[in-house]
Amino acid sequence: MTVHNLYIFDRNGSCLHYSEWNRKKQAGISKEEEFKLMYGMLFSMRSFVSKMSPLDMKDGFLSFQTSRYKLHYYETPTGIKLVMNTDLSVNNCRETLQQIYST
Amino acid sequence: MAIFSVYVVNKAGGLIYQYDNYVPRAETEKTFSFPLDLVLKIHDEKVVVSFGQRDGIRVGHAILSINGADVNGKYTVGGKEILEYLKDPTNYPVLFAIGSQLSPEVGSSGIELLETDVFKLHCFQTLTGIKFIVLADPRQSGIDALLRKIYEIYSDFALKNPFYSLEMPIRCELFDQNLKSALEIAEKTGTFGPGS
């Protein structure tokens, strides 16, 4: 199981923390722009999910995966967003992200 | 129904096919007296709840019928405008019933699987840029095979149809029929045999 990187955002969109362990490909844009892009994507994803959902939801968007990586998302009630990119073998990172938040 | 909807998106990002299969329990019936606890507004040709929540009716729900008579967008079958009708206190007899419904919208991306606590969204992108999107229950399995099957049905009944032009909305009966039966098979068994 590989963890590629971890982002932590506050509720206004500024990146509080970023760590990288095993990232194969850089984004090609500056770190600041990458944070804004990531935050914008999460924001759009959450509103997309809330509109598409056929039933009323409790937690909302949890994770997504492509053919190469999986992105896990955890949001606290105060608006802090934790995002972790891992490889595909991981099933559920939610508890890990909750532990990271509570320590 | 464990498979909620199927969407097909063309290369430019336009929706060319949509099939919705929501669970009927998204409808609730409620009896109101004057004044209404909910604030209603007109959105997209439907009367929708914009504020106020009560007993299973939430923001975003649309009015399906009043007193058992189905509504037609903004107007009741009798031709009266719904909002005017609901504002007039003389229209509220002792009992008053409203049905409700959820209304969805569309998006797309290069993601293969998107997970929430209520549904899983699967996306299959072909080499020609067509995207097949399936919204299903998180517990439903075999969706990958279903996506390949929908691609097969698309190439058999939409592409081979001489009257269908590429990237246009799909209006082929055989495509609809075969899609529905493929969805039923997927919900029951979760796998497909080698033949169609």
Automatic annotation (TrEMBL), chain A:
Family annotation (SUPFAM superfamilies): SNARE-like
GO cellular component: endoplasmic reticulum; Golgi apparatus; TRAPP complex
Cell compartments where the protein resides: Endoplasmic reticulum; Golgi apparatus, cis-Golgi network
One example of a Gene Ontology biological process annotation: endoplasmic reticulum to Golgi vesicle-mediated transport
InterPro entries from the UniProt entry: Longin-like_dom_sf, TRAPPC
Domain of life: Eukaryota
Gene3D superfamilies for the chain: 3.30.450.70
Family that this chain belongs to: Belongs to the TRAPP small subunits family. BET5 subfamily.
Name listed for the protein in its UniProt record: Trafficking protein particle complex subunit
Protein source organism: Danionella cerebrum
From TrEMBL, chain B:
GO cellular component, one term: endoplasmic reticulum
Primary location class: endoplasmic reticulum
Compartments, record wording: Endoplasmic reticulum; Golgi apparatus, cis-Golgi network; Golgi apparatus
GO terms for biological process, alphabetical: endoplasmic reticulum to Golgi vesicle-mediated transport
Purpose of the protein: Core component of the TRAPP complexes which has a function of guanine nucleotide exchange factor activity for Rab1 GTPase. Plays a role in vesicular transport from endoplasmic reticulum to Golgi and autophagy. May play a role in dendrite postsynaptic membrane trafficking.
Membership in a protein family: Belongs to the TRAPP small subunits family. TRAPPC4 subfamily.
Description of how the protein assembles with itself and partners: Component of the multisubunit TRAPP (transport protein particle) complex, which includes at least TRAPPC2, TRAPPC2L, TRAPPC3, TRAPPC3L, TRAPPC4, TRAPPC5, TRAPPC8, TRAPPC9, TRAPPC10, TRAPPC11 and TRAPPC12. Interacts with SDC2.
Protein's UniProt name: Trafficking protein particle complex subunit
